[in-house]
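Reviewers of the previous submission asked for a worked example of the structure-prediction workflow described in the proposal, so we include one complete record here. The input consisted solely of the amino acid sequence. No template or homolog information was supplied to the procedure at any stage.
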Amino acid sequence: MTYLNLLKLGHNNLYELPAGLFDSLLSLIFLEIQTNILTELPLYIFGSSTSIKDLHLENNALSKLNNTLFQSLAAVRKLNISYNNLSVLPSGLFTSNPNLRYVWLNNNNLVSLPNGLFDNNTKLAALYLSSNNLTSLPVGLFNVCPYLSFFRLSNNQLSYFNEDVTKLHAIFTFDVSHNNISSLPLKMFNGYRYILVIILNNNRLSTIPSLISCTNLVLLDAMFNHLTENIFDGWDTAGNDFLLTPLIISTISRFCFFNSIA
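From that input alone, the workflow returned the following structure tokens.
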């Protein structure tokens, strides 16, 4: 099967994969192994799969990953490891994946992330970390992600953000709802020129940093916080049109729908 491009093994009862299973599939681009009962993967299971661009491992029972598991996947762009039982990620897990753009790590049991996790992933555009047990993020996590546009960190245990979060200049969607955040960096949104959606609900915020730079913002959700002052004080909204046009309503509706199934 030298020319096989797409292999779908999802939604079965696979509990293990034999070593070398994909060795002869040299043209494989899309690989789906989601929704099985895999608890671990052989060390070099993807050793010959250098052409894979989309890899789906979600909805299994994976509890650990070896730091060389994805070493041969230099072409991978989409990697879904959500809905597993991961509590830690090894350092260097994504070092050999410079083309990685979309990463789903949501709905695991992650309590922390290793330093430099995405240092070699400068093309990263979307990162989903919702529904874990994260209490903090490594310093410098966002320093090397200039194209990060979608970031979801809802339903964790975060209480603060490091200053490097202010460097997400390409961000469109920022969701940190359902955490324990009591304050945000003063210049948090100063460079968020392209931001469309900010979700801050269900935290402990008493104030929100200025949104003067967020000229394209169409949705701000700050419900269920501890806001005690007029959050629009000091905001220059003269140049912003907050009229709910059909286009804006459509944008918000699509956001709500897609995030309800993410």
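The longest strand covers residues 6-8. We consider this example representative of the routine output the project will generate in years two and three.
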